[in-house]
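Batch job 17 of 40 flagged for manual review because the log was empty.
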Amino acid sequence: MIMMGRFALLVFLAFASMQLLCIAADHDAAIFYDSFEEPFNGRWIVSDKDDYKGIWEHSKSEGHDDYGLLVTEKARKYAIVKELEEPVNLRDGTTVLQYEARFQNGLECGGAYLKYLRPQEAGWKPKEFDNGSPYSIMFGPDICGLTNKVHFILKQKNPKSGEYIEHHLIDPPRVPSDKLSHVYTAILKPDNEISILIDGEVKKKGNFLSAQDFDPPIIPAKTIPDPNEKKPEDWDDRVRIPDPNAVKPDDWDENAPMEIEDMEAVKPEGWLDDEPEEIDDPEATKPEDWDDEEDGVWEAPKIDNPKCQTAPGCGEWKRPMKKNPAFKGIWNPPLVDNPNYKGIWKPRDIPNPNYFELDKPYFDPIAAIGIEIWTMQEGILFDNVLIAKDENVAKSYRDTTWKPKFVVEKEKQKAEEEAAGSDDLGGFQKKVFDVLYKFADIPFLSKYKLQIVDFIEKTEKQPNLTIGVLVSIVVVILTAIFMLIFSGKKQQPRVEKKTEVAADTSNDQGSSGEKPAEEEKEEEKENETGGAAPRQRRRDT
């Protein structure tokens, strides 16, 4: 048994030694790495610009002995930069950009992205680092309002115009919505492939030279609309026009009111004509410190007249209003096909003077790493910033630096959910929301994507969300799909009964129409009040 124990100990020591050697080897393979275990002062340079008053702090990640770079105050601008010993050539083989970010207070409104800066010859200084400092790549999470994305932006110089243009990755992944540590990885490959990973899982793949993956495309269009060409004055692009031969019917009275008094209505029995709806509060007393000269004449506050509570009404009785059967509204001629319609005008295409071709993007070298953010929340922690030329090196760092922390945080989160008794429902909700977010990414729903995502996010934050609400979200999405499918059906022309003086010829209108919205609202109002005008109430305080 003693021999077996010694053998096991030797195996353990050998395994541990191998792990340490692997970590050391990976560290040597990294072009740049900062674990922030040591204070950042002297290594990272804080901007002296007046706008950047946010205080950086060398702080432990909540629940760990691991240190990071912490954003300490909300509603502040922050800027800090680290110069590299040697510029990194992004055109040479694979390049991996990786770092950890943790929203310790949850997602509110803040950015946690990094900027990979061009050499200082491009016109910037570390002490003057700000949002105008020239960068090659901007990468990382950003959330506020409708913005929720992991940015990847390449800033490239157009060799024809000499202008630097930001090219944004289309449909980037969303930011994880929790308080856990997450590791963000961008892998740039020599075959122009770009991969974005979150926690080691590929969330987005694209190609730098594909017009479907970057906006605007890195390679410009060969032709562009002629900016000097103007639409001819006689060009008619109206598909439909008011019928010039239509005539308003003789019996069409535009001056007839929408509502008239119901002459058949009878004052309810027991109506108290001489009683006001409100009376002075008999229990109210004038405050002792009330000064009539300074405060004015004191009046008791009003309360509902108790006599009116058992009566059908108080005060002057007036006949209720009803729909006027003679009301027709403003007459508009129906729309007909425009015989002079020429189609939608657009300028002719001409060769793009700024067009060029590339075999691969022109990446400016990376000479520094900067964090320049404006955030409305505190508690954002940055850690384990890495640049490497081998994606296996990045994976090794994820496994040894990020994953142990994430496992601990995930277990703690699970324990808290179980303690709150919401684990089963929470798991069900997560699966449903994952499906809903996939619905929002369907291409033909792109027009409604922001509204759908905003609605899902708002409901996701409610801990007591019921299955009924979840079902309603699905119904909304399915309704949008239904409308998209059937919205192309041509509708018959109708007249819009309006009270405006001028007609809007941009909408389909006819000489006979449907029930106006005002009439429907009035009908609902009468149904609610039983045909009698509602009693107005007023309360002074």
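Reviewer: the log was empty due to a logging misconfiguration, but the result itself is present. Residues 417 and 423 are 5 Å apart (CA to CA). Unflagging and moving on to job 18.
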